[in-house]
Amino acid sequence: MFTHIHNNQNLQKIIGLLIGIGFGFCLQKGGVTSYDTIIGQLLLTDFTVVKVMVSAMIVGMIGIHVMKSLNLIDFHTFKGSIGSSAIGGLIFGIGFALLGYCPGTVAGAIGQGQMDALLGGAVGILIGTGLFAHFYPVINEKILSIGQFPVETIPEFIHLPRWIVVLVCVIVLSGVLWFLQIQGL
């Protein structure tokens, strides 16, 4: 079904643009393009970001695995590493804490006219991407390859069928949402 889309790069770009606009719209309507909301999350006083992201994880996890079960898509996974997770988390966390936006919320905030997102976020993303690309050979050899994971996915790691893992994750994440709701967070 998706072979035609996969082989048509122009159609992929149009679909990507439309999905990106929809994603940005949802982020904005969810309130996570607000600097105050992001900082509130970092200070553990506003859990809007967690609620939006956990909801997205549940919907995405179910949707991707339903499409995989119907043979509509293939997974394209790769083995990660402790080094790539640590450096990625560190860079993401520093940028997130300093600016108050992540890459997705930067795009949404730019879309609603936030100058700090445009000047700090977009420029920061471009500079960071350029630096990463320039230093990639050294970073890949000395950091990103440290502690390669033995498998590509969690179900492979714990030797369980993926639907069992999805079901457990959906139950746990739904519990997180329920807990936040009853706590009034």
Report on this structure.
- The chain is an all-alpha fold and 185 residues long.
- Helices cover 76% and strands 0% of the residues.
- The chain is built from 9 helices and no strands.
- The chain has helices spanning 3-7, 9-30, 35-42, 48-69, 82-99, 103-111, 115-144, 154-158, 162-182.
- Helix 2 (9-30) packs across helix 6, helix 4 packs antiparallel against helix 9 and helix 6 (103-111) runs antiparallel to helix 7.
- The longest helix has 30 residues, at 115-144.
- It is globular, with a radius of gyration of 19 Å.
- The N and C termini lie far apart (42 Å).
- The relative contact order is 0.12.
- The model has no long low-confidence stretch (mean pLDDT 88).
Low-confidence stretches: none
Mean pLDDT: 88
Q: Mind summarizing the main beta sheet? A: none
Number of helices, where a helix is a run of at least 4 consecutive DSSP H or I residues: 9
Summarize the amount of helix as a percent range.
over 70%
Shape: globular
Structural class, judged by helices and strands?
mainly alpha
Q: Could you state the order of secondary-structure elements as H and E? A: HHHHHHHHH
End-to-end CA span: 42 Å
- Per DSSP, what share of the residues sits in E-state strands of 2 or more residues? under 5%
Beta strands, count: 0
Q: Work out the radius of gyration.
A: 19 Å
